[in-house]
Please model this.
Amino acid sequence: MDQIVNVDEFQELAKQALPKMYFDFYNGGAEDQHTLKENVEAFRRIMFRPRVLVDVSKIDMSTRIFGFPISAPIMIAPTAMHKLAHPEGEIATAKAAAACNTIMIVSFMSTCTIEEVASSCNAVRFLQIYVYKRRDVTAQIVKRAENAGFKAIVLTVDVPRLGRREADIKNKMISPQLKNFEGLVSTEVRPNEGSGVEAFASSTLDASLSWKDIEWLRSITKLPILVKGLLTREDALMAVEAGVDGIVVSNHGARQLDYSPATITVLEEVVHVVRGRIPVLLDGGVRRGTDVFKALALGAQAVLIGRPIVYGLAAKGEDGVKKVIEMLKNEFEITMALSGCPTIDDITRNHVRTENERLHSLL
Ligand SMILES: Cc1cc2nc3c(=O)[nH]c(=O)nc-3n(C[C@H](O)[C@H](O)[C@H](O)COP(=O)(O)O)c2cc1C
Ligand SMILES: CCCCCCC(=O)C(=O)O
Model:
């Protein structure tokens, strides 16, 4: 693993390790995959305004998310079905999260059960949920997560229907049986045509979900509630008004609505209207420590990492996930040092220049 020097290199290793159907599922975005490229490219258009002659002999990357101390503002995004990537599945990912002292958001579509993940290690875990037409199923899973010591619920709000992932349609992607749902719903779909994941999603997801349902979610859990999948100031305001505890600016890793904006380009408009009332997190296209820094400079409290975690898992199991997190942390640390920011609180809006600002300066 010493030969691996950045997280992108895990993508090719994952491709070699996985059957094509599974690699395509993890790797793919919706339709033309325009947003998939943009999520990464938009970070590259942001430049630094580094400060010098600041004492950076000690760098402290640590921060707190909902009161939980983590070693750096880098968390694990919810991604479905880790056992398709590695036999130990979400347990390996959770152990890596614990070793790196960060938070893992476990997917509603996990292949290990909530209880298995909880008893495997002491990682701080949040549970991501989808709301099914059968609300009782979602409610039971939330209750089990609460009982198993999960610390927050992350409601994904950008999947009233599954985006068109053309690779999955071509491959007739199989949706496996998920242990969490045993005795509740059959998740196994082997489609004659199209994507099994899409077929499963359309039969289960409640597309009528709306802001008033935050109240329903509040009525079934005492845990903090984050909404994941907002991209506009209008929805950010709705979220604050609905009384949620946090927001994840996300386009679902570009797997839902193609030509949605790159997340980093809309972060500021969300942060601006939220006015510090609740934490704002971001995911989508974070591949470098410099990206983490840029997101924090534009107002995020932390970032979530999706595909690189799965690629690390596929290539090298728990050690691969650890390596992905450690590489991002190392890159973030040197970015802080070279920008003149010894602590997270020292990172400000003035440390970056966005593409808009550059264009403006030309007028
Ligand atoms: C293979 C895969 C599975 C995903 N599964 C879920 C999921 O179950 N629930 C969810 O809210 N988001 C899911 N996402 C979206 C991620 O949580 C996250 O928003 C996205 O991956 C971040 O972008 P990145 O992959 O560029 O880091 C998934 C993404 C991928 C790539
Ligand atoms: C019931 C919904 C299936 C969603 C599959 C997992 C997911 O979110 C993804 O992006 O893939």
User: Anything to note?
Assistant: Residues 9-362 form a domain with the TIM Barrel fold (CATH 3.20.20.70). The pocket of flavin mononucleotide (ligand 1) is lined by residues 25-26, 39, 77-80, 107-109, 128, 156, 228, 250, 252-253, 255, 283-286, 305-307, 310 (CB under 6 Å).
